[in-house]
Amino acid sequence: MQILILQGLKHEVTFLCPSPDGLHLAVGYEDGSIRIFSLLSGEGNVTFNGHKAAITSLKYDQLGGRLASGSKDTDTIVWDVINESGLYRLKGHKDAVTQALFLRDKNLLVTSGKDTMVKWWDLDTQHCFKTMVGHRTEVWGLVLVSEEKRLITGASDSELRAWDIAYLREIGDPEEPEPKKVKGSSPGTQDTHEAEDGTLEMDEAPEDRILTCRKAGSIMREGRDRVVNLAVDRTGRILACHGTDSVLEVFRILSKEEIQKKIDKKMKKAKKKAKLNSCKEEEEDLEVNVEMTLQDEIQRVTNIKTSAKIKSFDLIHTPQGELKAVFLLQNNLVELYSLNPSMSAPQTVRTNRITIGGHRSDVRTLSFSSDNIAVLSAAADSVKIWNRSTLQCIRTMTCEYALCSFFVPGDRQVVIGTKTGKLQLYDLASGNLLETIDAHDGALWSLSLSPDQRGFVTGGADKSVKFWDFELVKDENSTQKRLSVKQTRTLQLDEEVLCVSYSPNQKMLAVSLLDCTVKVFYVDTLKFFLSLYGHKLPVICMDISYDGALIATGSADRNVKIWGLDFGDCHKSLFAHDDSVMYLKFVPKSHLFFTAGKDHKIKQWDADKFEHIQTLEGHHQEIWCLAVSPSGDYIVSSSHDKSLRLWERTREPLILEEEREMQREAEYEESVAKEDQPVVPGETQGDSYFTGKKTIETVKAAERIMEAIELYREETAKMREHKAICKAAGKEVPLPINPILMAYGSISPSAYVLEIFKGIKSSELEESLLVLPFSYVPDILKLFNEFIQLGSDIELLCRCLFFLLRIHFGQITSNQMLVPVIEKLKETTISKVSQVRDVIGFNMAGLDYLKRECEAKSEVMFFADATSHLEEKKRKKKKREKLILTLT
User: Please, one GO biological process term (predicted)?
Assistant: First the structure.
């Protein structure tokens, strides 16, 4: 049962991460943004913008206060979830970051990337103190197990590598002897040497070392391809991974007690064996050494085979010892499996499956019924009929790989053209396949129903165009007649046929060929009439307008050409899409047409004025086909993102100027996001301080601050003038209030500036201040001094103040006018911050006291319950004893 839908941004979701408390969900998007949704309300109030490419990894720390995000832009950013701001950006990887993990007890972060590196970061100093170079291929995943003393990594080969981690306090004294150096190395440098397995390892100088990593061994996977996902359950006892296939490999990590039991058992066996082989005199001096291998500590449990390729998975270890694994599969299914890992031969059972009536592969053809109610969609294995109004699948029929289709007049049967060149005729009432006809020797690329509705034409890869008529034949299984088709004529051509289309008057037939031309023939005599040439690549789609005056062709060269069908002249060539034009269809009874492309967009065009009318965005992958309803009110489209989207024409008038303006705004927003960050004097380009990125929201926030400062300057100047006038006149004259200030409740201009600062999102605050010109900073500093003295919003003001001081340090210190302001700020800030700190300390002490009181009360209640229970037992015992005495 569906519980909740989280309405996100228009971009594709690339990563999900639940918070440790289970109340929030962090969602990473393709454009690099992150949103945090509340699972109680379903709202996403927190948005982080810092990455320039798709999010590839998200991970919360143990308390859920920090979030680490990795991206294809090679950066790792640590975000403060509570304060809704970025803490620091960690640069070091040379390719996409694949995984990031916080350590539980130490302020450390470990990340892996496609650059074959695993990096350890000290979050106190925000620098990488260790790089593991023991992988020859991309590192796709990593997990920490055995109380964070072992790291397991998965790469592009069939090995899971295990690394033993020893922390500084566990290594010994600081005076521990230095590791062996390569000849010629100097102290304090990092040296590499070749390990036993041929990989490079790195030794660090002891003074720089926080931890050491030594390779413990490898676990061989059964899969030969790369690791896609590697994860452990919350207990850290079950390890699982999968590749690009449909098999999840499950391993069990033994606890210390289980490992000790194994060692004792092995010792017993080894001693017994040694006693048999040795003399009795030597029994007392017998010593046996038993070593545990990595395979003994991490045992293979079983493999879980799913019904399709795995996209992602998650594990739940129940208190009863049962392991549950939930899978999201490549074909849009969600499956739940359970097993008992403690058994010697655990059996996996599929306990549940979530499926909806969609296709399991890409839809390659769509068609509307004549009454606009039913929609046909066909893919590699099935044909589905959908009710347009309810969006429910009402009929599913198995078929071969479908490429084209249409409803037979009357909407009781459908015809499907397949990749093997067959025509399949289905009856919708029963869902049965009525007939299969071998129409072409190669793929049957296109079908076109004749305007008189008595037949249709097919075009295939065997360089032929075939004409078919509908006919009624006697059914072998019943006395009634059924629909069938018979071939009437064949038109043989020199090139492979890609698309065919009848003219509305049924006099012309347009045929698109592999030689990049479109040839037009007379239907009655099949004589050649016109050749439309001009495309650089083959024409994939075309359509003829309702009046037969125009033909529009869409090609793999990304262009759409509009031709006159009378003389074959090209009226206009339009650069339509950023990739191949996959489908083109005229709106009935108009010269408007829609195109769909591999650039994920659907566009509407005017064939008379040669104008782009609107763009429909929604798909995340290549669009394969679309269909326009006979009424022109609906469009349905299919894409490689496994979705069908239904578009409805609204009654709202479309104004082209507004559309152009919206398009320009969208382009401007994209250009703003691609701009480089402003250069700050004294900061290096890869400085970890700046975590955000410039967006249209941050630019607008900076503009609001500038407008507020301008208003403050105007109002203060007015007030000074007003005072001078009143003084000269010798009487008080009321000053008219600014309408903006009146809207905020007739507040003062300085209070209005504070309200503007409060209204800026916490995640966008630094970036807004970064693009603010320095000419506004002196006024802001003076206002901050006033606000801090009043004691309002100390935390927000200090955050803004310290950021401005950092980025404008040189200009502020060189400005003599600002020296007294900074001195005052120093005094007021220190005193007010110490006051706030005292209040917070007092509140925390109070909360601790209340916590202790609650715990003490609960303990008293627990003991009271226990004592009353004991007294009850004693009373019952006495009653039983009395009964026994009376019976005896």
Answer: maturation of SSU-rRNA
